[in-house]
Amino acid sequence: MASDLTSLFPYANIYFLAQESEELVMVFGFLKSAHDAHTLGLNHVGQLIQECGYQAVIATMKEAKALDFIDRPGSWPILRDWIISHRITHLGLSYRLDPHQGLELFQRLIYSLDHDPLLSSSRGSKIKKLFFAGLPPACELVNNKFGRRVITFQGDESPRETLLRLGIPERFIPRAIKEGAVYDEIRLDFGTKLINQEKHLNLKPFPSLSYPEFGTRQDHLLKRLEAARQAGRLPLFRAHGGPYLPEREKALSLFSEWLKKLASTGWLDIVSIGSSQLSQSHFGQPWDDLPNGGGVPYNSELELKAIWEDAQPMLVRAYSATNRIPQVAQILEKSLNMAWHALSLWWFNQLDGRGPLSLREGLSQHWETIKYIASVNKPYEANTPHHFAFRGSDDLTYVVSTYLAAKAAKQLGVKYLVIQNMLNTPRSTWGVRDLIKGRTLLRLLKDLAGPEFRLIYQPRAGIDYFSPDLTKARAQLAAVTALMQDMEPNNPHSPEIIHVVSYSEAQFLATPDIINESIQITRAALQSYPQFREREGLREFILHPTIQEQTEEFYLEARRYIEEMEKTIPRLYSPEGFYKIFDQGYFPVPYLWGKREVFRRAVNWNTRLVDGGIFVVDERGRPMSLAQRIARIKSISSLTGD
Fold first, then answer.
1. Where do the structural domains in the chain lie, given as residue ranges?
2. CATH of domain 184-199+221-277+301-548
3. Phi and psi angles of residue 498, each rounded to the nearest 5 degrees, phi first
4. What's the rounded mean pLDDT across residues 620-637?
5. What percentage of the chain carries pLDDT values higher than 90?
6. How far apart are the C-alpha atoms of 332 and 364, rounded to whole Å?
């Protein structure tokens, strides 16, 4: 009977094998705290498990809140019922916050499991395996407490390694997962050898550039790029930095020391201030006892001017505000001579809890700010695509949202666009998919380029890409630098800027020494990789016709989606037009936490990892065609009268 069914249903063999072996009857359940905003990793691990033919269940906010108050009456029954109703056999907890709190929460969960007669009996527990994912100190605490009983994950595991450690047999891991990582593994091998040989430690900073405005109030990103091009020392290096101390004055004093050191050593070209949350939301206002949330706590024009002076001759920039956005942009420009301004458009508001403005209010203020940026002839960065990716959006949303933001800026008079392209987002993305996505993004934006609209490409590593193992993280930094060079291998001036994410990010904030070493690693990779690429035959791989064809298909799909929006939404390139894009569900955000009831059409989508990229999928988990996607948007809009 099984063989008959297998001829009709390709996955029937998995079902019957699962009946024959208890090893294969596995249902994975994953919990997290309601206080922990990190959801992307859990969802993608769940999708990897499903690709292997197993069931994965991600707890809802109801279970998350019950977990946080597990000792209160009525909380544990909620979790027990969730486990039993889904027949969960393998249970994991993800906790990326305080390590000691993570251990305490996990201990209480295990105690409840061990003392519940419905889940534990003389015949053994219904939970066959336990997993914990967290920061390295938390994993160490869990390992010390529970030993082999719990399998821990620090977040630097490859998809294949993750699945094997979860207990999924090798034979059920799809070939695409195994083979899709080959390019990534070759680049990581390159990075590992470079770090082992310590090539980066032999480099010295470039000599200072020389042009009349260098390091003055009249300096400009375009002048520095041109001088660097003539000197043969592109790309420029930009890094994000700043200490966190609870006492504001001490934090500012330490940041002053950091800036002077970065400026004097000469590795860094552009410093981005790691602005505190209150600096963004309450600049120039009394802070009293408001929680700061980390970052550089500047709160006056005088403090900003001091930062600029300490940083010279580096170019300087800071985060935009989350309220009174145009007014603060003017203060930042006047005080810091901003290298460029970056705005997140749909984000840093009530949707993500980063600011007090509604989506409509935020978009309106951003429009006024972009007009100001154009009036002072400064570059603009559309800091939008990865914020969609953080909320579960698909790759199409990533590239199209950037194009729309860029076209709106061009219409408002902006002449220089900084293209920030966050790679490895989510971290399970394959390098090959990053090539397709990045090349499509660049081609779309080149459709807008011209004498009055200059593009400046700035790739960076993903925000959660690096391993907590600092030796491996150094190799990963070299590997992702290689990926940046592969994006436009025939363009000797690409990229013009690299946002260097320091290798220590998974462990702690980068100090000036670590920022400088990260730039050394990046420079060493830029010098060594072209020869490695030729020797390993990677140039033929990254320019393979299959990758070219998939890039062409993705570009055409993005163009059709843009044309559909331009045809359907009145005054698309306006605050109201961008509001409608979000409200009507053109950009899916299934992992959005704030305002879900208001933007039901935006969250009511499913996305998943397929062949190394993120796609919108139907109820069966199959990627939707663009026609299906548009038809669904129109169907819902017609029902609501929009």
1. 2-178, 184-199+221-277+301-548
2. 3.20.20.240
3. -115, 125
4. 92
5. 79
6. 19
